[in-house]
Amino acid sequence: MAQTANATRTRQSSAINTIERLFTDLQVFLYRLSGGSIGGTFKGAPVLLLTMTGRKTGKKRTKPLLYLEDSDQIALVASHGGASTDPVWWRNLQHNPRAEVQIGRNVLQVEAREATLEERERLWPRLVAMYADYENYQKRTSRTIPVVLLQKIAH
Question: 18 has which bridge partners?
Fold first, then answer.
């Protein structure tokens, strides 16, 4: 009986992951096609495309993410919806911090790092003001959700 329940949960999880991946691929395609006119905002917050290298596969991976511009850097929230683990995109950036960002039609080379405690304390209220669910995500997990800073790399 337990094996059947586990097999059912595994199939459901796999189906959800497949649907999520297809939705993400469609959003990335439409964002690129339209220069961000389609998929460039979510609930009023701006969306960028982050392309990083997979730490296990070495393949390029693109993820649409909410962002906040802060002076000469870009702030992201590694919330994973309040899950107990960091999102894969953040783990990929920890392994290889060099990435590419597309905002609208602009493409930038960036380097990622985790915000210091002081930077996080300064940025967190602005990030929550931009997307209130971040506060709910933080309440769901015991980990401190990282704020990731992307610094533009000069060519």
Answer: none
Residue 82: both structure tokens together: 């309040």
User: Residue 21 is which amino acid?
Assistant: R
- Nearest-angstrom CA–CA distance, 91 and 80: 11
Q: Which long-range contacts (CB under 8 A, 24 or more apart) does 33-40 make?
A: 35/104, 35/105, 36/102, 36/103, 36/104, 36/105, 39/64, 40/104
* Beta carbons of 100 and 51 less than 8 angstroms apart: yes
Read off the pLDDT of residues 83-134 as tens digits, 9 standing for 90 and up.
999 999 999 999 999 999 999 999 999 999 999 999 999 999 999 999 999 9
What domains sit in the chain, N to C, each tagged with a CATH number?
2-152 (2.30.110.10)
